[in-house]
TrEMBL record:
<comment type="function">
    <text>GTPase component of the GTPBP3-MTO1 complex that catalyzes the 5-taurinomethyluridine (taum(5)U) modification at the 34th wobble position (U34) of mitochondrial tRNAs (mt-tRNAs), which plays a role in mt-tRNA decoding and mitochondrial translation. Taum(5)U formation on mammalian mt-tRNA requires the presence of both GTPBP3-mediated GTPase activity and MTO1 catalytic activity.</text>
</comment>
<comment type="subunit">
    <text>Homodimer; forms a dimer in the presence of potassium. Interacts with MTO1; forms the GTPBP3-MTO1 complex composed of homodimers of GTPBP3 and MTO1.</text>
</comment>
<dbReference type="GO" id="GO:0005525">
    <property type="term" value="F:GTP binding"/>
</dbReference>
<feature type="compositionally biased region" description="Low complexity">
    <location>
        <begin position="26"/>
        <end position="35"/>
    </location>
</feature>
<keyword id="KW-0819">tRNA processing</keyword>
<dbReference type="InterPro" id="IPR018948">
    <property type="entry name" value="GTP-bd_TrmE_N"/>
</dbReference>
<dbReference type="GO" id="GO:0005739">
    <property type="term" value="C:mitochondrion"/>
</dbReference>
<keyword id="KW-0378">Hydrolase</keyword>
<feature type="region of interest" description="Disordered">
    <location>
        <begin position="15"/>
        <end position="35"/>
    </location>
</feature>
<keyword id="KW-0809">Transit peptide</keyword>
<dbReference type="InterPro" id="IPR031168">
    <property type="entry name" value="G_TrmE"/>
</dbReference>
<protein>
    <recommendedName>
        <fullName>5-taurinomethyluridine-[tRNA] synthase subunit GTPB3, mitochondrial</fullName>
    </recommendedName>
</protein>
<dbReference type="GO" id="GO:0003924">
    <property type="term" value="F:GTPase activity"/>
</dbReference>
<comment type="similarity">
    <text>Belongs to the TRAFAC class TrmE-Era-EngA-EngB-Septin-like GTPase superfamily. TrmE GTPase family.</text>
</comment>
<feature type="domain" description="TrmE-type G">
    <location>
        <begin position="251"/>
        <end position="418"/>
    </location>
</feature>
<dbReference type="GO" id="GO:0160236">
    <property type="term" value="F:tRNA 5-taurinomethyluridine synthase activity"/>
</dbReference>
<dbReference type="InterPro" id="IPR027417">
    <property type="entry name" value="P-loop_NTPase"/>
</dbReference>
Length: 494
């Protein structure tokens, strides 16, 4: 009986038989053009001290012998100084360090070679042309090295995405999150969930095949139900992360709003460290929404400067106010700016009543947004501070002119953005792409069908569908179109 049960486990682990163009185990069709050997400049363009040129494929050893003297391959994974020469003319090109990585112990899983040459444009161009003359070599396409690593089981699809995010990381938080994903935390989590479904599916299949067998363990279906319930709780927790991972990857939307002449544009320029917005004492200077990506206290943000909220005096300004109000509704975080020396003005009072107070949780209009109230122009205040008669929610004092209060504002921003984006150093791995969220939701929906199924065969099929969604997160069963979209974000040489 146990032999039959293990057969069912193996069958469930394989899942439905469908074409898999590119899998972690490399059992599907290989990446496009993987029979050829590719080469590319893997370091940055332009003049530099050292440039790295890589090859990957079966002709990498031949390329290394063709360009170097002596012609023998260097010891594996040890840097050797060699003279590089053009294989056609014998003309010396450079003295360079070369490295030999025989497959499968390489980044791509194939034979690989690296040429660490001097970074002058003429040297790099000469070595690339020399490699192009070696039979069996061709220039690499964008992301082709990483795609080959995926095809040969060196990286899962989530690890590939983590590598892409690491290359594009611009803030400390993005770097930390990308490193965690590159280390395979999300991949390991999804594989653990898939194994849970495999066991549950094996229990259901065993009951279908051996339901009348006295030797079958008691409560085998109850065990499957318990495993599914636990998995539903875990999936629900990750889906309730309010898109924190996606915000961390692409940036939280921070909108600067307030009445005219409160200092919104000055604050945007101060936070972005460049003159993004025109600053003028004339009301209505900013009429459209100006956006700039910034690093706020280590977190990525898209900072939006908006028109002053008031009754527009002309059609252009009225349209700017309408756009500002719409952008406020879409904001992840609002920086509400008031003139600390003019809190009693009608424009300041109206902004407090219509934008600041309604943004808090439990407000009459149902809005619940994160908001920081900033009282600018603190350098104009008397020693006693803001007008004590003003009924204000908690606020931060700032002078965009002198910079006083900026450290306090940045610390407050760090706390708000950490809550919005999550702490990339602790807690479970975050979902950084809509693709992850789509498949986790699909898995959760399939588990709902499992619980409602009246027939065991339908229940088993629901578990197979749920498991398929999890394997697609890490790269199993993906289509070529999805893979093309993911790898097109990579640069040539990576």
């Amino acid at each position: 009986m146990w032999r039959g049960l293990w057969t069912l486990v193996a069958r469930a682990a394989r899942g439905p038989r469908s074409p898999r163009p590119c899998t972690r185990q490399g059992s599907g069709a290989p990446a496009p053009g993987s029979g050829a050997t590719v080469f590319a400049l893997s370091s940055g363009q332009g003049r530099c001290g050292i440039a790295v040129i890589r090859t990957s494929g079966p002709a990498s050893g031949q390329a290394l012998r063709s360009l170097t003297a002596p012609r023998d391959l260097p010891p594996a994974r040890k840097a050797c100084l060699r003279l590089l020469s053009d294989p056609r003319s014998g003309e010396p090109l450079d003295r360079a360090l070369v490295l030999w990585f025989p497959g499968p112990q390489s980044f791509t899983g194939e034979d690989c070679a690296e040429f660490h040459v001097h970074g002058g444009p003429a040297v790099v161009s000469g070595v690339l042309q020399a490699l192009g003359s070696v039979p069996g070599l061709r220039p690499a396409e964008a992301g082709e090295f990483t795609r080959r690593a995926f095809a040969h089981g060196k990286l899962s699809l989530t690890e590939v995405e983590g590598l892409a995010d690491l290359i594009h990381a611009e803030t400390e938080a993005q770097r930390r999150q990308a490193l965690r994903q590159l280390d395979g935390e999300l991949s390991h989590l999804c594989r653990g969930w898939a194994e849970t479904l495999t066991k549950a599916l094996a229990h259901v299949e065993a009951y279908i095949d051996f339901g009348e067998d006295d030797n079958l363990e008691e409560g085998i279906l109850d065990r499957a139900d318990s495993e599914v319930r636990e998995l539903e709780v875990a999936l629900g927790a990750h889906l309730r992360d309010a898109r924190r991972g996606q915000r961390l990857r692409s940036g939280a939307h921070v909108v600067v709003a307030g009445p005219p002449n409160a200092g919104k544009s000055s604050l945007v320029n101060l936070l972005s460290r460049k003159p993004v917005s025109i600053v003028s004492p004339e009301p209505g200077t900013t009429r459209d929404v100006l956006e700039t990506p910034v690093d706020l206290a280590g977190f990525p943000a898209l900072l939006s400067d908006t028109a002053g909220l008031r009754e527009g005096v002309g059609p252009v300004e009225q349209e700017g106010v309408r756009r500002a109000q719409k952008r406020l509704e879409q904001a992840d975080l609002i920086l509400a700016v008031l003139d600390a020396s003019d809190l009693a003005s009608p424009s300041s009072c109206n902004f407090l009543d219509t934008a600041v107070i309604p943004a808090g949780a439990g407000s009459p209009n149902g809005r619940s947004q994160r908001l920081l109230l900033v009282l600018n122009k603190s350098d104009l205040l008397p020693a006693g501070g803001p007008d004590p008669s003003a009924d204000l929610p908690p606020y931060l004092l700032l002078s965009c002119l002198t910079g006083e209060g900026l450290d306090g504002l940045l610390e407050a921003l760090r706390k708000e953005l950490a809550a919005l984006c999550g702490d990339p150093s602790t807690g479970p791995p975050l979902l950084t792409r809509a693709r992850h969220q789509h498949h986790l939701q699909g898995c959760l929906d399939a588990l709902g069908h499992y619980k409602q199924a009246k027939d065991l065969a339908l229940a088993a099929e629901a578990l197979r569908v749920a498991r398929g969604h999890l394997t697609r997160i890490t790269g199993g069963g993906g289509t070529e179109e999805i893979l093309d979209i993911i790898f097109q974000d990579f640069c040539v040489g990576k």
